[in-house]
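[Q] Does anyone have a clean structure-token version of this?
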Amino acid sequence: AAEVTVGRGAGNDVDLAVAAVSKRHLRLVLRDGKVIVVDLKSTNGTTLNGARVVGPRVVGERDLLEVGGVQLVVGTSDVVLGGADALAGPFPRAVDLDAVTVVLQKG
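[A] Here you go.
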């Protein structure tokens, strides 16, 4: 299964330089065509559509993950980005997880 780690600092696939993000905050795993989010016991937690993530949770197309004021939207690049112009500047920023794209944007 492909996976992406999100946190503050080197050693993560996605390095967010945001104080409210833990050093190792969350992991996104692609398993059987589904994206699963796991909070890595972060200090400030992770929310999925406004609800705190406790244990592994399946993330659906266009669901909204939030970590330290940064929003992560999961889906295919066409659905989430609406075209490459959406990637101008540091946010939103896209991270590929096999055929799935995770887009990070400031909340």
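[Q] Thanks! Anything notable?
[A] The chain has a mean pLDDT of 75.
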